[in-house]
Amino acid sequence: MNEFTLGVEEEFMVVDPVTRELTSHDQKIVDAAQKIHEDQVKAEMHQAVVEVGTNICRNTDEARAEVTKLRKTVATLAGELGLRIGAAGTHPFSHWQHQLITDHPRYFDIVNELQEAARSNLIFGLHVHVGFQSREMAMHIANGVRYFLPHVYALSTNSPFWEGRNTGYKSFRTKVFDKFPRTGIPDYFNSIEEYDSYIKLLVKTNCIDNAKKIWWDVRVHPFFDTIEFRICDCPMLVNETMAFTAIFQAICAKLYKLRMQNLKFITYSRALINENKWRAARYGIDGKMIDFGREAEVNTRSLVLELLDFIDDVVDELGSRDEINYVHQILEHGTGADRQLEVYNRNQSFSDVVDYITSQTLQGVDV
Hints:
With about 375 residues, the chain is an alpha+beta fold. About 50% of the residues lie in helices and about 15% in strands. It is built from 14 helices and 13 strands. It has helices at about 30-35, 60-80, 105-115, 115-120, 135-145, 150-155, 175, 190-205, 240-260, 270-285, 300-320, 320-335, 335-345, 350-360; strands at about 5-15, 40-45, 50-55, 85, 125-130, 160, 165, 185, 215, 220, 225-230, 290, 295-300. Strands 1, 2, 3, 4, 5, 10 and 11 form a 7-stranded antiparallel beta sheet that branches. It starts with 5 loop residues before the first strand and ends in a 6-residue tail after the last helix.
């Protein structure tokens, strides 16, 4: 039986509490955190970003404990430096031109190759790993989960602002990331061998030097036996991070269960799934997406509820019902993007939005 272990990575912004701008922490947060959590806290390409990652967790309870602990550590260390951390897909108004690149050969290589696409990639995501016993099974499940990516992405939308503008999108983060090659919804792969030969060909022809430069919304991880979900904006609240983590785990468990019963889940083309992804980015949970089976537009909220029904029979076994139930709170109170827009509309103040993000990031975290 597959265990569906979990790993959760979050990317946080480092904020100056006076100007509310993104600011370099000069790797001090990372250096201090590594003394506590070893390599669970890492630098990212921009110096205003700190990435945290849990150890391998057996279930959502363990994942919640680690996610909360890592937020607490990073927030405490930032506070000691007179800084704050925030969790959102983009910073409301800081300009990437003023942000420093981390001094590391890997990042210099990426900037050298991708130029302005890399320098402007000042975004913050959530990555969730779900463990599998074999890469063959992981590939099969990864093909199926693609259909549900826009549903969860709609719930996670948390980046309506970019460089001091209301973009009109609930998630502008992916629009920024789209400038990178090898992003977005992946193609269907018939087998793990087909996927591996694709990677080998790219390496052989100098398109990439390693498989981590495939930045799709979901991928069979090149080095771990996991499916890695990469589509979500970094969520403001621990409760949101845990809800999305639990949903991704449950989708994997459900598709695995169908596979074990020799039942096939219909797979759809990248071109069709992309239509729903675009709608999720633009409207969040307040728009419509396409139900491909019915060939009709349906309210995104009702498709989210259908997804919850679809995974319902595996949730108790996984022990994640409380986490998944939080989705109803998101449907009622809005996504991170909805709440950011609400705060902004009160006084047309981006500083208010930053203060809201930094305070919400620590909700339920004992700092």
